[in-house]
Amino acid sequence: MEAIAREAGVSKPTLYGRFPDKEAVFRDVSRRVHMRLREEFAAKIEREGSVEDRIGNALAATYRAIYMVLRQSVHASELIEANQALAKAEKAELFDWMRDEIARILEDGGYEDARHRADILLAAADGLKMHAVEGEALSSDIRLLANRLLAR
Hints:
Order of helices and strands: HHHHHHHH
Helix content: over 70%
CATH class: Mainly Alpha
Shape: elongated
Number of helices: 8
CATH architecture: Orthogonal Bundle
Number of strands: 0
Strand content: under 5%
């Protein structure tokens, strides 16, 4: 909590006045990150363009944001652990919502196997994120993935 207070530029008593412990801080950070990811995804997927571009851009922006949060934080390993342990339900809700949105766009675009393709896209994008060494390359790879998987 001392390091978090120092990074936030507040005193420890101020931090404890808002959060009872480090887990509560990470839960709040995780919740805020998930909300931001959802907003970014929704904004990108509703833009004009082809189905492939809309989905590719939405996934690229979302996974790049996740990558940047985890790679740039001095608390990345703690955030990852906290995200897995404390925000599992939020993460599942976000990914279920993303899958449903992708499937909806695909169905509207005439894809009969929309849900299956949405599952493949998310699984592959998650795998790319795990092995990414640079954010821009990750975005490019995810767009390529969406364009190739959704090509008719």
